[in-house]
Amino acid sequence: MVTGGIRRRPVAEHVVSSGVDMVGIGTALAIEPNLPRHWLAGQDSAPALPPIRWKNKTLASLANMAAVKFQLRKLSRGKTTNPRVSPLRALLLQQAADACRVRQYRRWVAQRMPG
Q: Could you read off the pLDDT of 50-107 as tens digits, one per residue?
């Protein structure tokens, strides 16, 4: 299996024709869940999030992952994706949600501790 940054049908087809059994297109699907239908219809769409040009590459990478997770959360709620989401907004929302889950987990653990 090959995964990571594959968003175009010709690239996916080239990888498969080279002998690889499977191509992962998870990020592309998070942005455009109908991508396989588009490809089957002959459309060569290549979904992408806008590039993040922050000086801090670590934060930029975290923001990119947060933007993808933002898309997945929208899809899980039956809503359409928003590839133009602000990376900063997506990152802040994810950090807030993570902090909430950590508090919930700590309370859960504390309730189960003896004594």
A: 899 999 999 999 999 999 999 999 999 999 999 899 999 999 999 999 999 999 999 9
Q: For the chain, how long is the longest CA-to-CA vector?
A: 65
CA-to-CA dists, residue 83 to 38, 60, 74, angstroms? 17, 16, 11
Q: State the pTM of this model.
A: 0.78
Specify burial of residue 54 (Cβ count, 10 A radius: 0-12, 13-18, 19+). middle
DSSP the chain: -EESS---HHHHHHHHHTT-S-EE-HHHHHH-TTHHHHHHTT------PPPP--S-HHHHHHHHHHHHHHHHHHHHTTPPP-TT--HHHHHHHHHHHHHHHHHHHHHHHHHHS--
